[in-house]
Amino acid sequence: MPQQVSFIGLGKMGEPIARNLLKAGYELRVYNRSTEKAKALVAEGAQRAEVPFEAVEPGGVVFTMLSNDAAVKEVVAGEHGFLHRLGHEGVHISLSTISPETSRELARLHAEYGSQYVASPVFGRPDAAAARKLWLCFSGPEEAKSRVRPLLEAIGQGCFDYGADPGAANVVKLCGNFMIASAQEAMAEALTLAEKNGLQREQVMDMFAQTLFACGIYQNYGKMIAQQRYEPVGFQLELALKDLNLVLDTADQVRMPMPLAGLMHDRLLTGVAKGRGGMDWTALAKGVAEDAGLDKEQE
């Protein structure tokens, strides 16, 4: 019989990831707060649960892909949470970008009920999720990681193990998102400098993306920033701000100064304050253009 897997959270990332589990031959039971988002997967063979509790099989495996710490805690331990039902030998895989401390707290909660927790945040936008091109970092108990690794391999192109600490993978994810945001700021500043000196933004970025910075972050985000095109929305600017808050909180806990992270936090906070929270996070470049007197008000 095909293994049954549960999936909670069918947003821009969750839906294509869940679909790849279906394609890999797993029986899938899904839950999303908005039932509309589950319809396509149900039409493709998934079963829909009314509440998180009903999505989970005792001793089974459940994925969560949710927007923040509070949302993950709610589906685990809230009124309709699955913590009690998952029970002995069950495994919860959290794909969300949440704080390392929240992952450690969730791991302790699961241990009280005989289940296990694996943190496995992902790198990649929705198109990468659909194409199984995600990169995954994961951490947690060895037994649980061995059990779920085939599932992780079914949704991405590579998995990187960061040991037993359930918060470790989240630290890696926050480091990565901080570096991506910083790279976007650098590209926005460099291309705005080029523009103010009479050069074509796209021409400059094309050269860098083929030579010194020939990798996806610079090629894909660089193209959007060069074209001042902030759609389609792969990752909302307000969620990037949430992640920078997590970066700074994590740094504070270990007394790690991160002045560049502070700058990025303020750049994103300004964008949200100006009503850009729902735009793609590359729209941070609009703030750079405004500072230089070049913003074209393309919102």
Automatic annotation (TrEMBL):
Matching entries from Gene3D superfamilies are given as: N-(1-d-carboxylethyl)-l-norvaline Dehydrogenase, domain 2, NAD(P)-binding Rossmann-like Domain
Q: Which InterPro entries match?
A: 6-PGluconate_DH-like_C_sf (IPR008927), 6PGD_dom2 (IPR013328), 6PGDH_NADP-bd (IPR006115), HIBADH-like_NADP-bd (IPR029154), HIBADH-related (IPR015815), HIBADH-related_NP60_sf (IPR051265), NAD(P)-bd_dom_sf (IPR036291)
> Which Pfam family is one of those matched by this entry?
NAD_binding_2
Q: Which residues cross the membrane?
A: none
Q: Where is the 6-phosphogluconate dehydrogenase NADP-binding domain?
A: 4-162
User: What are the record keywords, sorted?
Assistant: NAD, Oxidoreductase
Q: Which family does it belong to?
A: Belongs to the HIBADH-related family.
Residues annotated as domain 3-hydroxyisobutyrate dehydrogenase-like NAD-binding: 167-286
Q: What is this protein called?
A: Oxidoreductase YfjR
Specify the species: Ktedonobacter robiniae
